Request: fold
Amino acid sequence: MSNLFEQFEINKIIPVSVKNVDLSFTNSSLCMLITVCVVMLSLTLCLRKRTVVPTMAQAFPETVYNLIQGIIEETLGKDGLKYFSFVFALFTFIACGNFLGLFPYSFTFTSHITAVGALSVFFLLMNTVLGIKRRGIEYLRTFFPAGIPVVLAPLIVPIEIISNLSRPFSLTIRLVVNMTVGHIILKVLGGFVVSMGIFGFLPLFGDFCIIAFEMFVALLQAYIYTVLSCVYLGMAVSGEE
Reply:
């Protein structure tokens, strides 16, 4: 059986280095670009013809639209719909990236801490900027909630800061671990298909079952990542825990 982690290796396609900084275009970059193109092309094709009674093609983006709208209204309220474009892009990017990784010879960039972590850190910075813009100096209450005695500030403030900074970490690890474990299981079962000879149909059947489950996990993890991101955004702009 080949190396289980070979499928997660970053390979340079177009090597680029600027002042000893590696800016190479990699297989991860390629799959991110493909993901963006697939999302944009799919939505464009599905919405070419709009009818009062939605066709199957039109029903797909409308279902995703209603899903994201529901997430925003539940976590951010009606006022949060102004963030709809960003949340919609976030969900479709992660979901499509998860699904893309299930195709042979593809690359699951959502299984890499650097890729997902960069997105999570960006979201933390965006939350901070929006929180300060929306609440001003009151945003500092995030680290010292009202009603707590001042004498406890040296204890509470560091805890709240660490809690705030840990959010990107929790978002990243949850998604990365789920994507990584699923692909490792597929690799292991794939190895048994060859090694078991005529009985290889048993792990092959298991592989099909895991793929079906992974499709569910891919959608579920994109949903969870989006919901938690909206919850954290709501905390930043409203101050409600």
Notes: Strands lie at 12-14, 17-18, 21-22, 25-26. The chain has a mean pLDDT of 85. The two ends are 48 Å apart (CA to CA).
